[in-house]
Amino acid sequence: MARPVRHDGVVFRRRGTHYWWMRYRERDGSRRTESTLTKDWHEAQKKLRERLQARDGNFLDIVRKGENLNFGQWADFFLDNYSKPPVRELNTHGANLRATKHLKLAFATRRLIDLTADDIELFLRERLRQRVKTKTSNGYHLRGMVKPSTVHQDLRVLRRILNVAVRKRLLHSNPCSSVEFPVLLKTMFRPHYATWSEQQRIERYSPQYLCNVVRIIAETGLRVNKELLPMRKKQVDLANAIVWIPDSKTPNGVAEVPLTPIALDAFRSQISLAGPAEYLFPNGKTAHGHQRSLKKVWRTTLKKAGIPYFRIYDLRSTYSTRLSDGGVADEWVTQLLRQGDSQVFKKYSQMKLKMKRAALEKMNRLANEMTLGEAQPVPKAGSFGTVLAQSGPKCEGKDFGIGRSALE
Hints:
Blueprint: E1 9-13, E2 20-25, E3 31-35, H1 41-56, H2 60-67, H3 71-81, H4 90-107, H5 117-128, E4 131-136, E5 139-145, H6 148-167, H7 196-205, H8 208-220, H9 224-228, E6 236-237, E7 242-245, E8 255-258, H10 261-274, H11 295-305, H12 315-325, H13 330-337, H14 345-348, H15 353-360, H16 404-407
Antiparallel strand pairs: 1-2, 2-3, 4-5, 6-7, 7-8
Helix pairs in contact: 3-4, 4-6, 5-6, 7-8, 7-11, 8-10, 8-12, 12-13
């Protein structure tokens, strides 16, 4: 009979080396010995615990694969399997390709588990010192400095690549979570709130189909490229005033969206414009059978209307802002936007500028000068005081215009 195993694993020093070694048993009972590649006993113990946890979770082979995988190999695998349509949009794949080109120049030969937050921050600082290269028939020309928003896009792509590696258990954690971006980004996301008069002026100068698009987005908050343009007629239920979204940017986006009377009229108008086509916005010149972009007609319409350019996607921000200003609770606005994170709502809603002004009007600028039992005079128009201080005992029995019977 075999002797019982007293220890699951052990860390020991081997002759002729400065590194600690570890010995443990595989799931089939066979003994395995390997180097921890560290001189620190505590780090060696940590690595042994991670090995045993991976063995018990039956993903030890995946962990070993991650230790031998370099960043360039994983980035190529990510681009082939997690970046192309239908997983991601074609434009997103193009942005991932551009960012990965710079990331592979810095980390292609590095092992995936060797990437640290310090390495990533050094890469970001180096990128911010570079200049934009443009390729012409006469060779490469250097232009201005790389914008911080471009470098931040590289960081976002790197975070996404490593997040997938963490989910596949090739990494224990994402080093990007400890990275501090070296530059303050001031113009990353500033949505535009379109006023009602601006919307009417845009509709006056836009073709009928674009007018319908403006009304639908401003009344429903649909995403223009992902949800509205590829929409089929069968997704619209005019009788029940709802539209079904089968595919969206996030899982929460897949839902039934209720329609307002304005949105309902816009859908009726677009269905009649589309004729016998399957899509609401047909285009026989594209392989998809529907329109893919409205950028050109949108820019032309804004120019005719005399309105400074803003993205058509910002009409989604207009939708959330109007809901908030109408008194709809933030939780309901988040659900109507079909967002999974309530923090994203703060990006879309410009909310309540009038409510903020109303709150400022309640400011008491004489608060520090008020004493108990002393009433301050009512400020005259144009002065800096706004609130009358309520007095103490001297006010007893006084009639303030509400009648003695009400005070008794």
